[in-house]
């Protein structure tokens, strides 16, 4: 099935992730961890937003908002439910979503791995396993056969540094301990020696996992480009708007700890995805207190409309690569705040664009309220609400605000 590609001067989109919206991803490692008696996850994902069935409706929403791209993930656990066995039905399902995007004038931006892995992969030690890069590349080779010639942009990994980010921010020790207990129980449940996920792993495994992920990215990029040499292959990073306070600030050391390996790995990427949600000021001891007058999100993090542009500049300056904003949004139940934050942040990006920054697009997180990992369904980033019983989608004012902002920049 050969599909046309869409050539656009700037990508305006919204993002999603399979596990967070599809529901019943029962062969994934996160599904197992969510449903253990000891877990860091507030609740199981269950049916999520039922987007496995309602994906066409979601694409219709994206079109109605005036988007020209849609970012979504392929669920590895669905496509390769047992090691070495690939589901043609699931490949066909995701190909339908690609076609559905193109039919609606949406550029499909595909994430190959958005945190969740097959449970059999995690039970082999996940990304601590020396064979993990080769196993992932085998999966990407299968993806390349069917998808590579139908896409323009692919992300190998979503925020592979996420646990490093939480660590530098000082996630409480009791949470790390609970996560360790969860992983130990998962290994026992699967009757394997070690169980490790991508957004749930031991701190002692950070370096090994990062090394294997970077190898996996490089091998995956090579194999995908064998099927389409023009395919732009990158990865996204969880980025803080890191600000230094004082000459002895630890900011640069924290940046190296959080992003360093991946910034160097960007030499083997066609672009870098920026994902920013908060500002952090670093003094000589660590994270400085948030000012009393700072605007914060529902989780108490400092948000500022200049933060996203600061992260875009930083990544481009350090890597020299084109940048795509693959996620940006705010956790809030105050949609007026969301409207203000989107508009103000886009004004800052406008300045960069007029200065010639190689910025490929802006993709908002997220299209619809969904399952937010350890927070369950209590945190809302969506442009649309979702009724948890009926799965009815309801536009928030921010959806129309975003539409008007896109239209004003397309004239």
UniProtKB/TrEMBL annotation:
The keyword Protease does not apply. It comes from the Bacteria. Pfam families: Glyco_hydro_1 (PF00232). InterPro entries: GH, Glyco_hydro_1. The keyword Secreted does not apply. Keywords: Glycosidase, Hydrolase. Belongs to the glycosyl hydrolase 1 family. PANTHER family: GLYCOSYL HYDROLASE, LP05116P. This is Family 1 glycosylhydrolase. It comes from Vibrio tritonius.
